[in-house]
Structure formats: C-alpha cells, structure tokens
Amino acid sequence: MAQFSPIRDMERLAEALIEGPGRGPRQMPMDLYRDGDRYVLTADLPGIDPGSVDVDVDGQLLTIRAERTLPEQENVKWITRERTPGSFLRQLSLGQGIDTENITASYDNGVLSVTIPVSERAKPRKVEVTTGKTLEA
C-alpha cells in the first residue's frame, strides 16, 4: 500500500504546473547505433497503441510520432495518476548516405525499432590499383 507523502505530492503538483498538459509533444528516450551497413534506432514508447505510431521520412528528415490515450472512467476517484495522455514526437536529420527507400520499423513490447540502411554509394569500397603504363592526360 502506498504511503502518503506531502512532499512527493507537492513535487508532482509543481511538475504538472510547470510542464502542464499543454506543453506540447513529449520526447521519447531513444538509442541509436551503427551495426555494419545499417543504423538501428530504438525508442521507448510504453503503453502506446501500435496503431498510433507513425514513422515518416521527408527528404532527409525522419519523424516519429505516437499518441497515448487513456480510457475515461466515470465515477472513479483517482489516488494517483502518473500515466498522462499526450503525443510524443522525435525528429532526426538523417544526413547523406542513407537509403531512405528501405527504412523499416517495428513495434514490440513498448519499444519501437527503426532500421536505417546505409546507401550503396556511402559504403566503403576498395579501389583497384593497376600496374603498368600510367594514364596520360
């Protein structure tokens, strides 16, 4: 059973007043790493309906949006409610050398995974060294 703590409740109230429901989209914690010829992005989106997750690529801008909605319950007296509804947003500039046509995304157990492949042109390549006559200009 949770114990009443006036200081903790005051901290929550202060955070709610500062941040408030109108503070706009929240950011989601994410990790990004390179694994060979692809980048892998993972973002935490617990309690999000997978149907609300939207991943867009516009040029070199990757945008991730999600919405958390909570069911309305009538005749309920909340003791605490920390899981607030709202929208989540994250935007990343992909830069050059990304194969934007083959980006894939999946959502599993509250984690969004986005695979971002490196384009063929951006991959390291070996340049053949020839011997013999030099080329004349």
UniProtKB/TrEMBL annotation:
UniProt cross-references to Pfam families, sorted A to Z: HSP20
Cited SUPFAM superfamilies: HSP20-like chaperones (SSF49764)
Boundaries of every SHSP domain copy: 21-132
Gene3D superfamilies from the UniProt entry: 2.60.40.790
Similarity-based family: Belongs to the small heat shock protein (HSP20) family.
Name the record gives this protein: Heat-shock protein Hsp20
